Amino acid sequence: MSGPWLIIGTVPDDGFGLVRGACALDAAGLAVDDVFVPVRRGTPALLAATCAACAALGAPAPQALLAGDAGRGAGSAEAYRLLAAELADAAKGADENAAPRGLTFHYLFPDLAGHDRVLLAALALPQRPLLVADAGFMYAAKMSGQAREYDLFTPDAGELAFLADELAPHPFYTRGFLTGTGQDAAQLARRAWDTGGAAQHLLVKGRSDLVVLRGAVLAQVEGPQTPAMEAIGGTGDTLTGMVTALLMAGRPLPQACAQAARANRLLGQLAQPTPATPVGALVPHIPEALRLALAQ
User: Fold this and answer.
1) Which residue of 165, 253, 256, 292 sits 20 to 30 Å from the alpha carbon of 74, by its own alpha carbon?
2) pLDDT tens column, 231-277
3) What value, to the nearest 5°, has the Cα angle with vertex 104 and ends 83 and 71?
4) CA 99, 102, 106, 108: dihedral to nearest 10 degrees?
C-alpha cells in the first residue's frame, strides 16, 4: 500500500481553525499546508519529530489534519467529521493510492461517537491502514471497547493503568489499586490486553520502555538515562513521532518501537537538556539520535 500517512491532532488554540495538508519542517519551523505551527508540545511536537525523522530515513513527510481546540471539543468535533468523510470518500474511490496507509491519532477530545465513525470508516477502506493512537484519542479508543482494532498504543505509566482498568471511563477514575506500586508495567500491560483495553502492540513509556505484543513483553529499553528529559513536556510526543516515521519507512512494528525508544533516549544524551529546555530544541538532534539507534 503506497498511500500517504496522516497524523491527526490539535493545537491548543480555538482560533487556529482547521488545517489539512502536507507537513514541512525547515530552519524557519513547522508548517502544515503552508500554515505556520509553533512547536511547543503536543501534536506539533509529534509532527516536527516525524518530519525530522522522515528526512533522516529518506521517507516522505507525513500529511496532517490539525484542529484548533483549547479543550472544549468543538475543534476536535470538526476534525472527526472531516476525517470520517475523507475516509468514506477514499473507500469509494478507484485510486488506492489516495487512501492512507497509516493513521496516527494524537490529542483529540475523547468523543466516543466521533471515534466510532472514524474507526469504522478506516476499517472500511479496501486495504486496512496501520492504526496508531496516543493521548486523547487513545482514551476514546479504549473507552469504545475496540482497542484491539489498533496496531499500537503509546501510553505512559498512568495511561497504562487506565488501559488496564476495565471499569474506568476516563484516566481520572482509574482505580487506586492499579496505580499503586504493587502493579508493575508488565503486569498492567498483560491485564490491559486480557481485559480488552490494549492495542495489539504497546510501547510503554517509563524509566524502562517496554515493547509489548498482546500482553507479552517483547523488548525492554533502559538506557541511556537523562533525568532532565522527565521534566520536559513533549518528549512522549517525540517518541510517538519517531515511531510513526519508522513505520512510514517500512520498519516492522516491534522493531520500530524499540528503535524509537532507544533514539528518544539518545536524544536526551545528545541535546544535554535542562528541565527548562523546550521540546523544540530537541528536534534538530533527532537525525543523529536515529542514526545511532539504528546502528545498535
Assistant:
1) 165
2) 999 999 999 999 999 999 999 999 999 999 999 999 999 999 999 99
3) 70
4) 30
**Tell me, what's the pLDDT at 212?**
98
Q: Is the dihedral of CA 218, 152, 134, 278 positive or negative?
A: positive
C-alpha distances (whole Å) from 215 to each of 148, 221, 259, 264, 266 are 11, 17, 20, 23, 27
Nearest to 159 by CA among 181, 182, 142, 177: 142
Residue type, 207: R
Domain 5-295 matching CATH 3.40.50.150: the answer reads no
* Every domain of the chain and the residues it spans: 5-295
Give per-residue pLDDT as tens, 205-226: 999 999 999 999 999 999 899 9
CB 43, CB 106: distance < 8 Å: yes
What length does the chain have? 296
Look at the alpha carbons of 160, 108, 52, 37 in this order and tell me if their dihedral is positive or negative: negative
pTM for the model: 0.96
